[in-house]
């Protein structure tokens, strides 16, 4: 009669069930979200470029003075903040 094989027993006891919450992977961002994010950053950059190159010819932009930096960098920062939620 053939001899039966001996099963190896594990040295460690069975793992306890973990009760910590598991993060669910989020779906990728929509193309509209990415478009708005990139659009804000590009608008901010273009605002600053136009201010540097043509502020004397555009009266209302010249009247804003240093607020042009706030507007331009504000657009860019808003776009950069949106990158934190981008998937």
TrEMBL record:
Q: Which UniProt keywords apply?
A: Cell cycle, Cell division, Cell membrane, Membrane, Transmembrane, Transmembrane helix
The processes (GO biological process) annotated in the record are: cell division
Q: Where are the transmembrane segments?
A: 32-54, 66-84
Q: Which InterPro entries does the entry link to?
A: CrgA (IPR009619)
What subcellular compartments does it reside in?
Cell membrane
Q: Where is this protein primarily located?
A: membrane
**Which segments carry the region annotation Disordered?**
1-22
Q: How does it sit in the membrane?
A: Multi-pass membrane protein
Keyword Thylakoid among record annotations: no
Q: What does this protein do?
A: Involved in cell division.
The record's comment on protein family reads: Belongs to the CrgA family.
HAMAP family the UniProt entry points to: CrgA (MF_00631)
Name it. Answer: Cell division protein CrgA
